[in-house]
Amino acid sequence: MFKKVLVANRGEIAVRIIRACREVGIETVAVYSEVDRHALHVRYADEAYLLGPAPSRESYLRADKIIDIARRCGADAVHPGYGFLAEREDFAAACAEAGIAFIGPKPSSIAAMGDKAEARATVIKAGVPVVPGTEDVGNLTDEELLKAASQIGFPLLIKATAGGGGKGMREVQSLEEMPTLLQSARREAESAFGDGNVYLEKLVEGARHIEIQILADTHGNVIHLGERECSLQRRHQKLLEEALSPAMDDDLRETMGSVAVKAAKAVDYVNAGTIEFLLDKDKNFYFLEMNTRLQVEHPITEMVTGIDIVKEQIRVARGRTLSYEQEDVKFNGHAIECRVNAEDPYNNFLPSTGRITHSLIPTGPGVRVDTGVYPGFEITPFYDPMIAKLIVWGETRAQAILRMRRALEEYRIVGVRTNIPFHQTMMDSHRFMGGQYDTRFVEERFSMDDAGEGKDAYAETAAILATLVAHRETALSANIVNRNERDTSNWKWVGRWERMHR
Ligand code: MV4
User: Fold this and answer.
1) Looking at CB atoms within 10 Å, which of 106, 130, 166, 318 has the fewest?
2) Is 429 near ligand 1, meaning CB less than 6 Å away?
């Protein structure tokens, strides 16, 4: 049993991890930077130690200091959260060397999935579908890439092997463009990751971003907890996630879930992880990459499965078996997460800094808010701008949307600008309501004045949602919902249903 866990992170995720430890009776140690002296994670922990100045490199990325603190305060384990040191194989290895459990996967799994070309090659061998592209690993020369490009065909994507987050990614329309774009992709990857290595994939257009949560223990048990729909993002920053996806059905979930389990087993995975897929219009799916960490959006999976993912992480890190087998995993209702960022949606999502003077946090049935800030806390430009995650659960997707609209209305944050108006506009968007969106939606088809122009628009939206709810609740609905998932827009079936009842 762990007696004491050091949480090597800050903000809402540090608070989330401390809460899980508290509930199972484990003492907690926080670490913090100079600007986080009064942060919530410091207040919630049993002990706290200063790391250094605000910049991450001098604080939350100081692996040496963190391990030293863990050793000296007698922590048995370190939880890295997400970001910072979470996917650094050298940190995971250094913890093990110091006799401290790393609450996450083995260094070798982090490394195997960290190199995206190697990850591709590994999962291909395990029979996981990937987008057609280069299959060799190691440093491919420009000459080899040009040759491969003609075979793959256009349009294609140049991706950085050290990548993630779209850095060093280039869309290529023709062979003529290749040399220039190769050069700029390599240059960007080199400056972002210190590694200019790239690989190629055919471009999949108009796809959705679906990710499958998996849990694995040290006894060879691997299960999946279903998917999260993460297509609503802007510049590779996710803004809103849903579980389950409105684009999936039970059969597809079972298929993709077992493929995700295969991918995890291919790298001998232990602890919580996420397999990212692209899902195209014809419901073909392709492995993209694996995130070898706890993710920001893990709460929506917790809401629909009832499984505490952080507690399972701690449990398997202690060498215990998972508390659940695949048959025990049942999905109930629908969950949505809105990431509340300190940024101005009316001004190109410009980051907003300053002191939070007042805040009123929504509560009530089906609402969960994970946050690391409070009135008096200052938002600085040193860390990412997410100040809270507003998570709601509803019996149906429509109920969840209505609940999210209510919670967003209740939310008050004074002192910094937030993207709450963006989320409100999204909740009123007819395309969102119909579940009809892909990864291009926010950037190409969505505008802040899409919905809610005047009171009438709101009344109309509410009426549509009420109709959706009522519809789901009739026995009749099952058939029509099934049909809609195959061939018509939700929009049409609401109209059809209304005409039927006139
Ligand atoms: C793709 C793709 C289309 N085709 N690969 C973006 C970041 C990296 N994780 C993978 N990404 C993509 N890879 C092929 N072959 C489209 C994207 C993509 C994307 C993926 C997930 C979520 C949002 C995205 C936004 C733009 C592009």
Assistant:
1) 166
2) no
